[in-house]
Structure to design on (148 residues):
């Protein structure tokens, strides 16, 4: 899980970089946060022909982060990544991130993240959780978020 700890810190590093380079980025980010059908990456691609994952990949490379971490940053919204043969630690890191993202997204917006319906079954399988386990974790996280 050592990769997870570091890449969790960096996986969205491209967002502030894009906000610094595009004057209207906050507006695009806000629109993406209100759109439950399209991901942020899809909104970014429409407006800039790039996205925060690509920018984050280049930042991570410039910061000399491990190649595996840079690839996770690049592909953290790629729904096909679970279908490929990847190192179990990488899959575990991606699964933990996607679950955490969905819990936070649901807590903030009262609806699942756009990626979740496509990744839920695989995420739970990689983490060796069933739906009841996930609901327990989600409830514990929501409880924590409400009281902290």
């Amino acid at each position: 899980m050592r990769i997870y700890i570091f890449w969790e810190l960096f996986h969205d590093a491209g967002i502030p970089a894009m906000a610094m380079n595009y004057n209207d980025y906050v507006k695009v980010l806000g629109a993406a946060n209100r759109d439950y059908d399209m991901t942020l990456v899809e909104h970014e691609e429409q407006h800039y022909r790039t996205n925060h994952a690509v920018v984050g990949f280049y930042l991570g490379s410039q910061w000399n982060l491990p190649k595996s971490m840079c690839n996770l940053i690049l592909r953290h919204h790629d729904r096909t990544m679970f279908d490929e043969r990847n190192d179990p630690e990488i899959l575990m890191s991606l699964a933990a991130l996607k679950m955490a993202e969905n819990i936070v997204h649901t807590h903030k917006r009262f609806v699942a993240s756009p990626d979740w319906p496509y990744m839920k079954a695989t995420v739970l399988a990689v983490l060796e959780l069933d739906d009841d386990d996930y609901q327990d974790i989600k409830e514990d996280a929501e409880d924590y978020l409400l009281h902290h």
In short: The chain has nine helices and no strands. The chain has a mean pLDDT of 89.
